[in-house]
Automatic annotation (TrEMBL):
InterPro entries: BofC_C (IPR015050), BofC_C_sf (IPR038117). This is BofC C-terminal domain-containing protein. Pfam families: BofC_C. It comes from the Bacteria. Residues 136-211 form the Bypass of forespore C C-terminal domain. Gene3D superfamilies: Bypass-of-forespore C, C-terminal domain.
Amino acid sequence: MIFFRRKNKDKRFKRLKRTFWTLTLCLVLAAMAIGGLPLSQTLQSLLTMPDSVEVIGNHMAFMKESDPSQEVLINKLEGTEQVREVALEKSYICGVETISLGIFDTAEMVSMIKQHPDWSGRLEQDRLILNEQIHDLSPECRENAFMGVDPNGNLILYQGEPDEEKVIRTFFQLDVGTMESSLPEGVLEQLHKGIRIQDVDEYNSVLSTFSDYAVAPVGNIVR
């Protein structure tokens, strides 16, 4: 696990370094604009750097408005004026929990939805199911989640040890041949036995490490 954490730490450092230089560039450009100074050719070339565009784009992603589907849900609720049972479905990176919140009238349900713009929801007969996305492992996953590989070379998140074959999620296929020649001795063997995952940092570290050996390109790892 120390190996996985160190490798993931190096990746985070590179991302932080790239973000630092992008913010520095923005401050320099702002200062020059205020002073009425022309841009040098060097600064102009920096403006087209892919890394800068990527970082700025990532920051802009956080400025999105709440899901417009909430307005559709609210319109449906107000159109029926019906008392309903409300349940909260907590969707973790690994695992789902459902909690009953009680019985509410339309005004109370609408107020609850508006107070949580990051929640989504759906109507199921006489029930309103609200969904909250949580960037963490569920309590159950913290107790018995393992990362392993199946006979086809796919990286799998298991409930329990891999030999129990209780699959939670399949990520991607691994280039096992390259892993055998690149990884420290014993890592691949441990993956076959199952690597215990107890928190989101361990989950990210292990997944980030093995994404380097994915047969196909891998996008954002954490959902």
